[in-house]
Amino acid sequence: xxxxxxxxxxxxxxxxxxxxxxxxxxxxxxxxxxxxxxxxxxxxxxxxxxxxxxxxxxxxxxxxxxxxxxxxxxxxxxxxxxxxxxxxxxxxxxxxxxxxxxxxxxxxxxxxxxxxxxxxxxxxxxxxxxxxxxxxxxxxxxxxxxxxxxxxxxxxxxxxxxxxxxxxxxxxxxxxxxxxxxxxxxxxxxxxxxxxxxxxxxxxxxxxxxxxxxxxxxxxxxxxxxxxxxxxxxxxxxxxxxxxxxxxxxxxxxxxxxxxxxxxxxxxxxxxxxxxxxxxxxxxxxxxxxxxxx
Length: 294
Hints:
single chain, alpha/beta, CATH 2.40.50.140, six-stranded mixed beta sheet, 8 helices, RNA-binding
C-alpha cells in the first residue's frame, strides 16, 4: 500500500503522486461506484500497485472541502482574478465570488489585472476598492503587464497551498499562470469582441506545481448562484459583519430592518463600506426569493 494525492483525472483514470514524486495511473475500486463516491483531484488516497501504469485506489481520506465545478477537493486558497478593464471592474461580481469562497472556509486572495488599461481617475477608484478590501483583511494585488516585478512577488502566494483560480472569462487567469511559470504554456482564450467575454479553453482538471504549491489548471466556480447558501448563513460570509454580529441586540439579526443592529451602525459610521452592505442586501434578497427545494 502507498499514499499520495490525485493530481489529475482523465477518462476514468486517476494520476496519483506520492511524496517521493512517483506518479501512478490508477483506477477507482468498484466499491466507490457502489457507494456513489467519486475520487476527486486533490484527494489524499491510499492505493496499491505493482506497475506505475496499473494501480487501484483503495481508500479516500476525509476531505476538508470540495467543489462541484471544478470537481476538486482539499483547496486551501482561492485566488479571485478580476480585471480593471475589458471586462470592467465589478465589485458586485467580486463580492459574489468572495461569498462563495468564504462559505467553503477557503482563504480568498484578490488579483486585479489590466491596471495598465485604466486612466488615472479610474486607477484612483480601483485603489479605493483595494483599500476597502484590505481593511476587511483580504490581500489585494493590482497587476499590470508592464510591471514585471509585481508578478515576481506573486510567487509567494502559492507556496504550501492548493490553489484554485476563480474569475469570469477574459480577466487573464491563464495569462497570470503563464507569467509565473513560462513552462506551462496554458491556452489563453482570446476575448471575443462581440461577446465581451472570453471563451472556455481548459477541459480537464489537473493540479500543476507552481512555486512550492499546487494550482488547479481549470476555471474555478463556473456557477455563481448562491443556491447552496441559506439566508441566515450569508452574513457569516462577510468577515466585517461576522466580527460585529455579537453587538446586535437580537440573535439571528439579518442586519436589514432590526433595531440596534451593530452591522448597520458600522455602515452608518463608515466602518463597513456601503457598497459591501448594498451587495449583502442584494444577495440576501436573491436567496429569500429563491424557490424552495424539496
